[in-house]
Every structure is written in structure tokens, then in C-alpha cells.
Design brief:
This protein is an all-alpha fold. The chain has six helices and no strands. Its main location: membrane.
């Protein structure tokens, strides 16, 4: 099969450049930056629940052995777990651990949704600019009359741009959106596994209710529905 007729720089410029420009104009700097970070994250090391558990094991053993009053936070280099365990030890309850996890989870999923939405929007624009290429090719026909060479060239460019638009959308942009989504869900499942493990390990040593001191000096129980 001869592939040279399918190679057209003008068609590629219209489809890729047009899709990129339209996506930039439709999305704000925040959405574009978030999408860039999500795409870069696909090439970063995958989150490891087992590695996180290994990093937290020493702190868990210390709390179970000596109690939370004598425990001190130990950073493992993961912002979520460092903040969560610090709050847990400082407030002497398992609840801040869960609360910090939910806050970080909400932020991560919001960022992932922005990236997926931006890539999906770009995927929708790809075929549109394939049609734009078709119109451009037809506009290049000579006004004086149509000869066979000009007609064949216009039809060829129209077909190629349409093809480029479909391939760009369905073989690159849409798969990238799904990859970002799967990557985010896999990380959340791993992090939830670590939180479940931490809760199971520390529940016997930590209460579920915090009793903060009022200004008057009386104790008030914090009720969780």
C-alpha cells in the first residue's frame, strides 16, 4: 500500500494547529496548566500503596506500642499522609486522618476531571478541523474552471484532512483522556487502601471522637453523624 498520498503537511497543520488553538482559546490558563501536569504525571512513577505502608509502618508501631501521647510525626515524603498523620497525632483522633484524606482526594479528583474534560473537548474539535481542511481544499480550486489535476488535489486534501481529524481525535486525544482518568482512579484506589490499612491498625489506639477544650474550660464532645 502506498502511504505517500496520506502525508500532507498542510492538512496536518490545519488539524493539529487548529485543534490546539481552539482548545487554548476555549480553556483558561488554569485548565491548560492542570492538563499539562496530568499528562506529565502519566510518565511519573506510579503510586505504590505498599511503599507508603512501609514508610508509615514505623510510626504505626510506635503509636501502638507507646500510645499517641508520646508519638511524634514522621514525614515519609507524601504530602497527604504527612499532613494526615500530623493532624491525627496532634488531635489524638483517627478522624483528622480521614478528613485530610477526603480533602486531598477531592482536590486530586477535581484536577483530574479538569484535565479529562479539556482533553475530551480537544478530541471533539479534531474532526471539526478535519472538515475545516475540506473547506480549505475546496477553496483552492481555480475560479476559471476545474481541471482534473486541481480536482484530484482538492479531493485528496479533503480526504486527508478528514482522516487526520478522526485519527488525531480517536487515536491520541481521546485515549489520553482515558489514560489520565484511569491513572487518577488507580492512585485513589491505592491511597484508599493505605487509609483503610492505617485506620485498621490505629483504631484500637485512637478514639473516633475528639473532645476539644472550650474557652470556659468545659469539655464538649464532637459528634459525627
Amino acid at each position: 500500500m502506498e502511504f505517500s498520498p496520506l502525508i500532507d503537511g498542510m492538512s496536518a497543520t490545519i488539524v493539529v494547529g487548529g485543534t490546539a488553538l481552539a482548545t487554548v482559546l476555549r480553556s483558561g490558563p488554569r485548565e491548560l496548566a492542570t492538563t499539562g501536569r496530568a499528562l506529565a504525571g502519566l510518565f511519573a512513577p506510579v503510586f505504590s500503596a505498599e511503599q507508603s505502608k512501609a514508610g508509615l509502618a514505623a510510626q504505626v508501631n510506635a503509636i501502638r506500642k507507646d500510645g499517641v501521647l508520646r508519638a511524634s510525626p514522621r514525614a515519609i515524603g507524601d504530602r497527604e499522609f504527612d499532613e494526615a498523620t500530623d493532624a491525627m497525632i496532634r488531635l489524638r483522633s483517627i478522624d483528622p486522618l480521614i478528613d485530610r484524606h477526603h480533602a486531598h482526594r477531592k482536590h486530586r479528583m477535581t484536577q483530574a476531571n479538569i484535565a479529562v474534560r479539556t482533553l475530551a473537548q480537544a478530541a471533539e474539535l479534531g474532526p471539526v478541523f478535519g472538515m475545516v481542511g475540506t473547506l480549505v481544499s475546496l477553496s483552492r480550486l481555480p475560479e476559471a474552471g476545474i481541471n482534473s489535476g486541481a480536482l484530484n488535489g482538492a479531493i485528496g486534501m479533503a480526504v486527508v484532512t478528514t482522516l487526520y481529524g478522526l485519527l488525531f481525535a480517536n487515536l491520541l486525544l481521546a485515549p489520553l483522556a482515558r489514560m489520565v482518568e484511569r491513572h487518577a482512579l488507580a492512585e485513589e484506589q491505592g491511597r484508599q487502601d493505605v487509609i483503610d490499612w492505617l485506620s485498621a491498625q490505629l483504631e484500637p489506639s485512637l478514639p473516633h471522637k475528639v473532645q476539644p477544650l472550650r474557652a470556659s474550660g468545659a469539655l464538649r464532645e464532637k459528634i459525627h453523624a
